[in-house]
């Protein structure tokens, strides 16, 4: 766990204007910098970055946050990755607090790869320059229907047919770093001096630079121009590049994915580039390897809807099945995963060119949902009218259903499977070994009548606590008891845990960053949005509490927030006790214990009512 004190120190050292300025063209506008929002499509700048508040805010779509949050949202980095990125630039080493019951994780001791990044950029520039003087490569790209602007956007290049062309790009062709970066190979043969010979890995190939989410070139894919083998050659595994975790075109597709609301996963480099030109710039591809859970996790950071497009042949079906396996652990109730199978004679590029963009968009819309594809795989080629066929289907279903999270989606899939097999739901669930999880979920869910409504008092209390974290000092033993009656008790407890860890440095800016790294991040985002759009004066005060003239006003607001927090919790406590009183009063007969409880509840509610009366008169 990264210490909260380190996060505060890091945010004090980095400049959000400089961080955002790497990705967005900013212009000075009064006290702030303005630019076009990178999170939604707009023609007039509504994206503001404040050097004083060290915060960005879009008045169009509501995106907001600090430098850490910007890197997470714009580049798709995880919270630790974004912190590491900023820490490296600030010359800091990220410390790690020990986990409960365990040792501290290794933190900040990553292997330096800056030099390799520079080498890859140099090679990329060299290949791009070489393409201009390679008519055979240009003709190939034109035959594939690509234009100059799209080739430039993806940084396409050409590796000539010689053995040591990169010698012209680097001062030291014998540097071990070129081998480590995967650009140069070392032969078993030696020259006259007994030194191992070296040669370029990529020769006579159209070059596709592979970028990470930061836009850095970390590898290459090379496509032969003739019928040579292999058709595609990728960079090897290096400190920069891992095929199982990178996606081609993700850096270029990020904004389009947000705009279109989904990502399209295809099988090849050329499909990605061609589709971007043909109206589908939200396409990405795996790098000559099967889709992995890491790929899916990376995609889910960008969007809640993923559509896999595969050829309809046997190879496409096999690739789809591997993608299905990778997706199962990530099949949350709020996500949509689909599978599109084109006719065997078409890939996405050829399909769009023959039938048009509208036809392909229709295919995407009608793609097979994950649930249907999963069931089809379970029952395929099995005689379901025979016990043997149904038993085999259940046998194959068990590990697949176990891979799904224990949520509403999995329950629905079990219902569908039971219908398909003509068996009772409980029997299918039991045979697949998941009935216990379902029963626990049902048992743990409170009865409808017992579920507490989230009241306006509760919402106000939670909002005040997040706006002014140090108002938590107003929570005493009695207020702590009141929290036990809150419908969002787990949110209060989580916020209080982080507020206490932040200590005196707690403010809205830092707390919001910490809460964005929790499982309840989507819930907190809604609260942040409400807070920052509620009142411009309040927003300015929260984002820059330490600026001249605002310190005293912030402290007054913080004190008032503490009073309102205590009042809201007292009202919450009163409502819960009164509800219990009413339930007891409606019973025809009370036990001795219930009679004692009822009398105690009357005393408590009367006491709370007296304390709340002055507050009610002020409202």
UniProtKB/TrEMBL annotation:
Gene Ontology biological process terms in this record: DNA replication, synthesis of primer
Pfam families: DnaB_bind (PF10410), DNAG_N (PF08275), Toprim_2 (PF13155), Zn_ribbon_DnaG (PF01807)
Cofactor binding note from Swiss-Prot or TrEMBL: Binds 1 zinc ion per monomer.
The protein's required cofactors: Zn(2+)
EC number: 2.7.7.101
Matching Gene3D superfamilies: 3.40.1360.10, DNA primase, catalytic core, N-terminal domain, DNAb Helicase, Chain A, DnaG, RNA polymerase domain, helical bundle, Zinc finger, CHC2-type domain
Presence of the UniProt keyword Nucleotidyltransferase in the record: yes
InterPro entries: DNA_helicase_N/primase_C, DNA_primase_core_N_sf, DNA_primase_DnaB-bd, DNA_primase_DnaG, DNA_primase_DnaG_DnaB-bd_dom, DNA_primase_Znf_CHC2, DnaG_bac, DNAG_N
Complex formation: Monomer. Interacts with DnaB.
Family of this protein: Belongs to the DnaG primase family.
PANTHER family hit by this protein: DNA PRIMASE
Protein name as catalogued: DNA primase
